[in-house]
Amino acid sequence: MSENRQLDFAEAIREAIRQEMKRDKTVFVLGEDVGKFGGIFGCTKGLQEEFGEERIRDTPISETAIIGAAVGAAVTGMHPIAELEFMDFIGCGMDQVFNQMAKIRYMFGGSMNVPVVLRTPCGSRYPVACGAAHHSQSLEAWFIHVPGLKVAVPSTPYDAKGLLISAIRGQDPVLFVEHKLLYYAKRMPKLREPYPTLISQVPEEPYTIPFGKADIKRPGEDITLIATMMMVHKALRVAEDLAKTGVSVEVVDPRTLVPFDKETITNSVKKTGRVVVASEDAKTGGVAAEIATTIMEEAFDYLDAPVRRVSAMDLPIPYAPALESTVVPQEHHIKDAILQLIDQK
Amino acid sequence: MELDKQTLLQMYRNMLRIRYFEERLAEESAQGNIPGLLHLYVGEEAVAVGACTPLRKEDYITSTHRGHGHCIAKGGELRRMMAELFAKETGYCKGRGGSMHIAAPDIGIVGCSAIAGAGIPIAAGVGLSAKMRGTDQVCVSFFGDGASNTGAFHEGMNLAAVWKLPVIYVLENNMYAISVSASKSTKLRNISDRAGAYGMFSAVADGMDVLSVYQAVSEAVARARRGEGPTIVECKTYRFRGHHEGDPKKGETYRTKEEMQEWEKRDAIQKLADKLVKDGQASQAELDKIKQETIKEVADAVTFAKESPSPRPEDVSSYLFMS
Q: What CATH number does domain B5-308 carry, 1.10.3210.10, 3.40.50.2300, 3.40.50.10420, 3.40.50.970?
């Protein structure tokens, strides 16, 4: 392995797809603009030239047909990777996600597997581009609510490659959520400079990261900060900043929401006694609510203060940058939540 | 198209298996022995049997909430079908699916979905899989006139057509989406006219004549195996019972008694029996023997189902994920 192979998130995703397609002929990609265009965020760039139009399939704008066709192919021996250009579009194909892909294995008594990997970009692109109400949402909470789907929410290029290879090699349906700001690091100094963790060392050889195994991104003693996707990078900046004032923050990244690693999170909470959960989806009924409740059930006796959520306001994502950055949690929101908790003796 | 005697008698037997299986189900349901809803296929048997007879074991079907007939016609065992309906561990889906969710991948039944139209894009994916794996398998996708007005119909048809997938879309036009007449849902007399809009082939068959369905689907299957793409085969048919077994007076609230009686006179099972006897291809005694054997087969399936164990609550979490 080369010693210092630095990839960004899109490169890691592309490498995982490419290596798995070389390994297994049943793996193929379908979605809007995945061919010559290389995917709306460049994740399949160059793959159609390498694998041809049969295996890197451009589709019509038909989310129901994209996901439905992936399901049909998956139950008959193929391993499709379906790409939805924006998570906001998933509603157009929702029946195939929550009634078909998620339920087939259980309702048919385990008689068939549905190895679909459904990749989709989520999240606000502030300050890179303002996507507004239909190109900025984080809807992963909808899918943890549907039994039968595994949900990955990777934050780093290293995790993205390992988790995606696990997803492709697995036999279960996976919703693979990719925060849009993660993609851009190499192309955008404006992101790379404040968030150097957006680029990571990634081994060239294929490797897997198991689902249901959280990762402690930064060890600490005073408070547990649980964060997903882009919020991990914001959390790491806040932790760095607070370390200078003597506050030791442990940043824990669940990496997958289904299955969810209760053990790592509970152990961290037992150590620190204080928890902030930072998740970019809307607060009500959101990912942070679920994690907070799980902590209450599993580690209530160890808590020295109530769990705090840092999530998006319960509003559509507005267009104006000043409004978008108010709705979507930023570093100062995380920092304020931590300081308030630390003050609660 | 000449069919041999054995195939004709097998078609007769399969239509009877569906009819007797379901009539028995209605009785068992009335006695409170079936825990779930029943959407019976009685009257439409010619469609399932005509469409599945040209298929091989390794070909696929997708089915619907009204799927018993399709599964039996594709080779489903009555014992395991009945056990599923009785919610038993020995059923096709171990009692997790029930009437509207039967699958048997080893005989190509990739599943019944209770969401109208959902099987249409899934069938496109099944066809894509066959094509990409380089086999000449085909997929028959059953759905009704009601499902033809969903968005899934449009997206699935378009994809199957543009990718020339080996799929036969069998549109069972029984004229009612629960209670709403197709004439109130579409301007078209033949819904299959929409095929032209997708650049695909279409045919209209008499869904009350198993040979008419067989012929139309056979041609579509041959075309699909040659790699020439999908076809919509619209089968004009009629359900003799209500939308489900709780539908008052078998649906007389939205259709006339006269209309129902007219269609019942066209019973496809009797039609085939009359033809076989008239053409000298079978004697009445042979047909009666098949009837008796089928009645016994259904009774045996009910005994099997009743004697089978229920799923255990401690196993409720099994099968959600492979790993």
A: 3.40.50.970
**ipTM of predicted assembly, 2 dp:** 0.97
Show Cβ contacts of residue A318 under 8 Å, excluding neighbours closer than 6 positions: A132, A133, A324, A327
Compare CB distances from A95 to B118, B123, B129 and report the shortest one's residue. Answer: B118
pLDDT tens string, chain A, 345 residues long: the values are: 456 799 999 999 999 999 999 999 999 999 999 999 999 999 999 999 999 999 999 999 999 999 999 999 999 999 999 999 999 999 999 999 999 999 999 999 999 999 999 999 999 999 999 999 999 999 999 999 999 999 999 999 999 999 999 999 999 999 999 999 999 899 999 999 999 999 999 999 999 999 999 999 999 999 999 999 999 999 999 999 999 999 999 999 999 999 999 999 999 999 999 999 999 999 999 999 999 999 999 999 999 999 999 999 999 999 999 999 999 999 999 999 999 999 865
CATH architecture of A215-343: 3-Layer(aba) Sandwich (3.40)
Give the mutation candidate from B128, B133, B139, B164 for the A interface (greatest A CB count, under 10 A).
Answer: B128
CB nearest A171 (choices: B125, B151, B323): B323
Nearest to B210 by CA among B142, B272, B270: B272
Q: Are A113 and B322 in contact (CB under 8 A)?
A: yes
**Inter-residue contact A208 to A159 (CB < 8 Å):** no
Q: Which top CATH class is A7-201?
A: alpha beta
Are B156 and A65 in contact (CB < 8 Å)? Answer: yes
CA distances from B244 to A104, B74, B91, B97 (A): 23, 22, 21, 17
Model confidence, pTM? 0.97
